[in-house]
Each structure stands twice: as C-alpha cells, then as structure tokens.
Specification:
Its main location: other. Belongs to the bacterial solute-binding protein 3 family. Keywords: Signal. It is found in: Cell envelope. Pfam families: SBP_bac_3. By secondary structure, the protein is α/β, with parallel strands linked by helices. It has two domains: 120 residues, Periplasmic binding protein-like II (D-Maltodextrin-Binding Protein, domain 2); 93 residues, D-Maltodextrin-Binding Protein, domain 2. It is built from ten helices and 13 strands. A five-stranded mixed beta sheet has the order 10-9-11-8-12. β9, α6 and β10 form a beta-alpha-beta unit. The longest helix is centred in the first third of the chain and has 25 residues.
Length: 267
C-alpha cells in the first residue's frame, strides 16, 4: 500500500514537472522583446569635438556647468534627425582638426569657418551659419576705428582662428595668441592689448553680457561661413549630417534654434 502510494506520488510529481516544462516552453515568446532589442543596437555614437569657450555658440552654463549654445542645440538636433547618439567632447579649438585627422573624434562643430586651407585636410558640411570678423577695443579708445588703424598695435587673438590669420596680415602688429576668445577679450579689458580681432557674433555677445567697457568698431570684414568639420575618411557621416541639416531647415527646427540664440530669423 505504501509502495503504491509512493508510486502514485512519483507519477504526480513527474506529471507536474512535465506541465511546468510546457509552461516554460510557453514563455519563449516573452524573450522576443529582448531579442529584438539586441538585434537593434540603436543609434551609432558620434563623437563631436568643440571649443566650449565661444559663447553664444558653445559654452558652459554658469549655474549648471552644462554645455549650451547655438552649436550645441544644433548638433543635438542634427544627431537626433540623423539617428546618432551624440557624445559631446570639449577641447581647444586648435586641437580640433588634429583630433579629426587622428580619428579621436568623428566631427567638430565650433563656429569653424570653412577655408580652402582647412578643406585640404578635412571635409565640411553645408554652411550652417554666416559670420564675419570685427575689431573690438576698449570703449574709451577713440584712435582705433577699424582694421585700417591696427598697424603697429597690440592685438589679441585666439590661436588657429581666422581672426588670428587676419591679425597676421596687419603690418608691424604685435600679436598675442590665446587658447580661447574669453582670454583675449579679458586681456583687452585689462588694457594689456589695443584690440581683439574675432568673429562678430561672439564679440557682440561678450559686450551684451555686461562688458560695456568694450566696443566694436569698423565694418564687419568679409562674409565667413561656418561648417561642421568631418574627417576625409568618413563620407557617410558628412552625408548624414548634410541630410539632417537640410531637413531641419525645411521643417523649421533650424530657424527655431537660430532665433533662440540670436533673436532674429536666419540670414
């Protein structure tokens, strides 16, 4: 009797185990979402370098330390449109092109003017901003009224910029190079130099931030076009960014970002 009871219990246990196994087999579809997620690796990472001392294009928010600015908003929108996961990396301006050439970064957005010399070593996206150079002096300076009065003067510039290139054309100029524009403009405020040659929107923004002891003089020199720099060996990145930029200009997102930072419609 006990033996029969034991056999019966064993049979019930085997049956229950079989049912449990069938139940586990029935849970196989539950694994599909995880498999689908694994099959879809998501957005490819795009490492983008920028000199984050160039307000209002890219700079650190004083309250949060977060990088903000026109370029920052734009590259975030471009990456979202192009399907990239953005990895934003701060570095000095004169280190951006070397970083592109050595594949440390996949792109650079930093109010970088498209020039023939730069195009020899990197590719550029379509133009996303039109700018120009301007001279900044102390507000009390009545002698310098533009580029024509810079001969023999002390000029501060940011290394590797078109402002530095223009300063190097000035006869007998005494040029001081800095790693970022803020340092150059502070040197001007302190009276250590006579002038700063820099991109107009950046110098104008500096004055607007309460630096009334600095003024802009003369006409804006030449029309400069900013582009996103991309390594020569990454044509697919260039194609995607150009496609995304075109879309943002068509759907109004680009204009929205532009007006946020410059208070006017795109030029």
């Amino acid at each position: 009797m006990k033996k029969a009871l034991k056999l019966g219990l064993l049979a019930m246990l085997v049956f229950a185990l079989a049912v449990a196994l069938v139940g586990c087999g029935g849970s196989e579809p539950a694994k599909e979402p995880a498999q689908e997620q694994a099959a879809d690796p998501g957005a490819s990472k795009l490492i983008v370098g920028s000199d984050t001392t160039f307000a209002p294009f890219e700079f650190a928010d004083a309250a949060t330390g977060k990088y903000i600015g026109f370029d920052v908003d734009l590259i975030e929108a471009l990456c979202e449109e192009a399907g990239y996961e953005l990895v934003f990396q701060s570095m000095s301006f004169d280190g951006l092109i070397p970083a592109l050439q050595t594949s440390q970064i996949d792109a650079a957005i930093s109010a970088m003017t498209i020039t023939d010399k730069r195009k020899e070593v990197v590719n550029f996206s379509d133009t996303y901003y039109k700018s120009g150079l301007i001279v900044a002096v102390q507000a009390k300076n009545e002698d310098i009224k533009g580029f024509d009065e810079l001969k023999g003067k002390k000029i501060a510039v940011q290394s590797g910029t078109t402002g530095a290139m223009e300063a190097e054309k000035v006869p007998e100029a005494k040029i001081t190079y800095f790693t970022n524009t803020d340092q150059a403009l502070l040197e001007l405020k302190n009276g250590a130099v006579d002038a700063v040659i820099n991109d107009y929107p950046v110098s104008a923004y500096f004055v607007q931030q309460g630096n009334e002891d600095v003024k802009l003089v003369g006409d804006i020199l030449s029309a400069e076009e900013y582009g996103i720099a991309v390594p020569k060996d990454k044509p697919e990145v260039l194609e995607k960014l150009n496609g995304a930029l075109k879309t943002l200009k068509e759907n109004g997102k680009y204009a929205e970002i532009y007006k946020k930072w410059f208070g006017e419609e795109p030029k």
